[in-house]
Amino acid sequence: MYTLIDSHEDLMFLNQELINRPYVAVDTEFRRTHKDNMRLALLQVNDDEETFLIDTILIKDPGNSASFLFSDSVTKIFHSCKEDLEAIYSWTQSEMVNIFDTQLAHSFLDNDYSISYQSLVEEKLGITLDKKETRSNWIRRPLSEAQLKYASLDVEYLIPLYHEQNMRLKGSKRLDWLNQEIDRLIKTTFNPEDYLFDVERVLTKSQERNLLERMNKIILDISTKEEINPTLFFSKKAQKDFIRIALDKGINFACNQITAWRRELIEKDLIELLR
Predict the structure, then answer these.
(1) Per annotation, catalytic residue among 23, 117, 150, 162
(2) What is the pLDDT of residues 189-213, one digit of tens each?
(3) Which domain, by its residues, includes 36?
(4) Which of 74, 81, 197, 230 is deepest in the core (most CB within 10 A)?
(5) Model-level pTM?
(6) Are residues 41 and 174 in the same domain?
(7) Together in a domain, 246 and 189
(8) Are 210 and 179 in a shared domain?
(9) Active site residue: 55, 101, 133, 154, which one?
């Protein structure tokens, strides 16, 4: 079951309720025509009691009526949140805080990188979700009953997943790792220019390939020891970027661009590699 929110007045009333919740599950439906053109079409929210579908086409400017999204006291639970953050920003022009991402949490807990929401729900809860409306036209109105039901299911199971993951993470260093990763994701989403470096290869292809092979072996060894997915730990692209930045701007500068939990695990090996 769900409640459709399609007026500013209804959104204001809902916001007064959600702002007092400790956590809410959030998902979006949107249309992206190219890299910098995104339009939020629907915002789905579940507060552990009810699901609300907020029509962001009809409510063009939320003003302060969606402040629960930006409250430090309300944890927003997503699955694979990067595009959702961008979509919500296109509607509100505000950056979100206090986020939990079940996809990232699963990567840290179960050594499985980039699992889909449907697969995670099936694996953890034994529930198979319908994927038929994934490529629907979410901009066109009215939305069909099938679309609305599909959208509501996208937040139906996020809170049970959050409880299961949070219980396993509590007291673990991986909770701190997850929080660092989410903080980094938020920063790179909203301020990407701070993390982009225009550096070119300064080694020959053969020299760079040799360094990358040695670096990848270090990463695989640490990943095995720490039981971390190697792509989550240090992807192939991140390895190449790191080596080029280190050779251009120095090893200390390059190490300072990676998150603290990664530095803790690999900095000594990287300094030795590039000495």
Answers:
(1) 150
(2) 988 776 667 666 778 999 999 999 9
(3) 2-193
(4) 81
(5) 0.94
(6) yes
(7) no
(8) no
(9) 154
